[in-house]
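Journal club prep, shared notes

We agreed each person brings one worked example of a sequence with its structure written out as tokens. Mine is Methyltransferase domain-containing protein. I'm keeping it raw so we can talk through how to read the token line rather than staring at a rendered picture. Sequence first:
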Amino acid sequence: MARQLDEQIIGRFPVGKRLRVLDVGMGQGTQALRLARAGHQVTGLEQDATMIAVARESLAGEPEGIRERMRIIEGDGRDTGVHFLPGSFDVVLCHGVLMYVEEPDPLLAGLARMLAPGGLLSLLVRNGDALAIRPGLSGDWAGALAAFDTVAYRNRLGLDVRADRLKDLTATLAGIGAPLHAWYGVRVFTDTAADGAEVPADVETLLAVEEKAGRTDPYRGVAALLHLCGVRG
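Then the structure, token by token:
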């Protein structure tokens, strides 16, 4: 996904431009820190105190220049208008958040308002059109059968959450003024890997396969996650 995001950033903004980045629901700060290291000015918004502590600890170990380029704010992604002015960012990330939001449209509209004209909105969501894949490959036939007609599922943390369908999000992005520009699949072949599984010796080949599949039909359509990139008109 990082490679996909970099492809979109490089294709949209001048090389060397220091971008203003907002990472909504930044978690432990993996993408936020990566972009700060690349020279961008990054703001991470997160409401989970444990995640914030992990992100702050990681940031504390970075060189001063990177620490100065990143700030962390405690808050809910649905309240971006409380913290920032419209058009304040060139790139807005919202990765792995929508599945926890029962009504995502207001959140998405708020994210779009944060973008400057031509800005990039990057979403990572659970693929509602492929929910039967994981239980099917695991031999859970009853679970696979039930998954065809719902966007609700139980994640690996044991939480009941929701997925999004590409068609629905495409319409939503168009309606909020950040129409879909590109989309990718994420975790096409590796979604059934056990948590904590050992990283294989040929991990670079694995990543190359996943990257290729994530941009190729029909493989990307059955990925566990979708990476959608919208552009503010």
